[in-house]
Amino acid sequence: MGSERDVEGAQVGPVAVQMLKPRHYRADVERAIFAMVANRALAPSSKLAIEEWVAKDTFILGLDELAVQRMYRAMDFLLEAKEDVEREVFFQTANLLNLEVDLLYFDATSTHFEVEGVAEEDVRQKGHSKDSRPDLPQVVIALAVTREGIPVRMWVGNPPKVGAGNTPDMNGDPRGEAGPCGMETGAGDQYGG
After folding, report:
1. Are residues 15 and 60 in the same domain?
2. Which range, 59-63, 98-102, 178-182, is most confident?
3. Strand ranges (DSSP E) for 54-120?
4. Tens-digit pLDDT profile for residues 32-85
């Protein structure tokens, strides 16, 4: 089995602790996040099952039990701080793996859904299709990778300048738009380069 040190290699814990300081939560949200990440990596299960997993099957320093409501509160925090957490984890990981992120490669593709009818606000739309199915709703899936091919960001549906399923690739150029974790991918990078 993995250890807390293995999971902390991604530096999610220190990032969460730093971002939680001004929020003054009474419950230890960072420990709840750590438990959910550890569970996903070691014994994937539902939030309700994580309660029992923490109480009976594993030892997590500083966490004897974990109520499902604490996990929901932690997930609310993650949703609220999503961009900041992604940015910090990106830079911690880039530093940990010594990644060169001065040049990113971007590619997009589409996949279709065999369903009837799609709401106008749905990200799945009919349009240009790489799999020759313009008659079916689809989404665009895009990926940004380093020179070494290590993925640093993925978008489904509405990445920067990559839109709904009716958007062709030639319109999917993210330069000058928010790229990986808010990072501009064109001239004048927001974070170095």
Report:
1. yes
2. 59-63
3. 105-112
4. 988 999 999 999 999 999 999 999 999 998 899 999 999 998 999 888 888 888
112-131 pLDDT per residue, tens: 888 777 777 777 777 777 77
> What phi, psi does 82 have (nearest 5°)?
-50, -55
Q: What would the two tokens of residue 88 be?
A: 């910090």
Q: Are residues 91 and 11 in the same domain?
A: yes
DSSP string, the chain: ---HHHHHTT-HHHHHHHHHGGG--SS-HHHHHHHHHHHHHHS---HHHHHHIIIII--BTTBS---HHHHHHHHHHHHHTHHHHHHHHHHHHHHHTT---SS-EEEEEEEE---S---TTSS-B----TTS-TTS-EEEEEEEE-TT--EEEEEES--TT--BTT--GGG---TTSB-GGG-B-SSS-SS--
Sign of dihedral through CA atoms 47, 50, 51, 52? positive
DSSP annotation of 161 reads T
- Which range of residues forms the domain containing residue 69? 4-96
**Cα separation of 176 and 187, whole Å?**
7
- Model pTM? 0.57
Token match 């009837």: residue?
A: 116
Residue 191 is assigned to a structural domain of this protein: no
3-class secondary structure, 46 = coil
